[in-house]
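Query form — protein Glycosyltransferase family 4 protein

QUESTION: What is the three-dimensional structure of this chain?
INPUT:
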Amino acid sequence: MSHKVLHICLSSGWGGLEMYPSRIIPELARQGWQAHGLALAGSRVAESFREAGVEPLTLASKGRALLAVGRVLAYLRAHEVEVIHCHKSSDLRLGALLATLRPSLRLFFTDHMGVTRPKKDPYHRWAYGKVARLFSISEATRQRNLAAFPLPAERIRRLYLGIDPAPYAPCLDDEARAALRRELGVPEGAVAIGLPGRLTPGKGQEVWIEALARLAAMNPDLAWHGVLIGGLTVGEGSDEAHVAALRRRIDELGLASRIAFTGFRRDLPRLFEALDIVCVPSRNEAFGLTVIEAMAAGKTVIGSDSGAIPELLDAETGRLAAPEDAAAWAAALAELAGDDDLRQRLGQAARHRVERDFTLAAHAASLVEEYENLQGAEGA
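ANSWER: The structure tokens for Glycosyltransferase family 4 protein are given below.
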């Protein structure tokens, strides 16, 4: 049985979906599987494959992918690859065609985004009919997938994402942590309240800013500092018009001296060490990778009570607030900002939850089990 898989991600963007294949490749290798990659030439995805130690097969454009089917089939034969795994619904056209032309291939698909409309027309029945297993990254998305996709329930499986908790474990000494807080503009003794993620509509930065304004009015003597972590340009994955609107609103509320923009940072695990509270006010997260990253860092997290985030957080590990309710966010911030012991207890419980339920090793083990079981079923 071949223990080789081709991950297909023909995207020119860069977000959690695009990062997934390169994140999983080293763990797959540790569990005995050799990964291959198919990406667009010159894309950040192709670069990430190389950074993970895999030289990808590349295509000039997504629009010409179907014309390259012969080349891809030849690559699969030459490398004895029997498993293909797609990560964008648009890539299923190629994946399903490959599985049609070579029926021994096993096709997997991960729905990273959460489907928003039914996909039961003839094309989707054909394409998804070639999928051996569809992975939903949360129970919230699985329920939508069951209703939207033309697949029997037993072929749709919830498979939570995972991370390696080790890089998120605190490692800065007091002096280094204090220096990092100063770099972020956090005054000594202030509660650092962070919001990491792409600065785009839907991620909840607006309600967070309004909540901080309410917090300032409710608790005028409380020292706090807001930290917005994320790229500021299109090239860094953000919406520049949205960034400009956020800056205007911060100025209107008189909070310019109390909220800092960090820009794109590669040191998120260390930035978590500089924060006291992490906020994830996204309106409809399909999973919430940032939530479990902050939890792994032992941080107290406030998340939206919508999408998949309530599957990750509960009253023992953090707090939830309605994504459009600035007053609820302000109340949660006030509770946590004023209680160091509570933040510590919640943070410790959150880290234990990640170690128990959301590790990359456990995720990859489940993935490998699916790859191997379905290969075995095909060969039986």
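ADDITIONAL NOTE: The longest helix spans residues 360-379.
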